Amino acid sequence: MSAILISREDPAGYQLGHILRVNDSTEKDHETLNFLKFVRPGGGFVPKFPIFGKIEVNGEKEHPLYTFLKVSCPFVNPVIGDQTRLHWSPLKVSDVRWNFEKFLVDLNGRPYKRYDLATPFDVIEDDILMLQHQKSYV
């Protein structure tokens, strides 16, 4: 599984990230804008925020950022899925299952929580609001 990290700053100054799954492992970083503009989401979409390069989120070549996030936040779903459809190795229970799985990181760069793809956004929003009003947490 590969990912494109997209970051944008919300009105409160937080960096919000989103991961887009890239099925074509041959796509190069310089092709990302065309992928977004013409394929997904398509329709001439041009982001107005910084886009980072494509990285591996699972497997032997996973990026250290995802190693750190996955060690810092426990997995949210013990079911790995159909292993014949997974394209990375080795498989670990902590692997990111799908492109809509999310990690919330506080302003100090500390991972706070990991969310399953089925988590309603209002739950995540409540956690974001709580972190905005809390200077630190244990």
UniProtKB/TrEMBL annotation:
Record's keyword terms, sorted: Oxidoreductase, Peroxidase
Any one biological process term the GO annotation gives: response to oxidative stress
Superkingdom of source: Eukaryota
Coiled-coil region list: none
Alphabetized Gene3D superfamilies for the sequence: Glutaredoxin
NAD listed as a keyword: no
Keyword Oxidoreductase applies: yes
Gene Ontology MF terms: glutathione peroxidase activity
Record-stated family: Belongs to the glutathione peroxidase family.
Protein name: Glutathione peroxidase
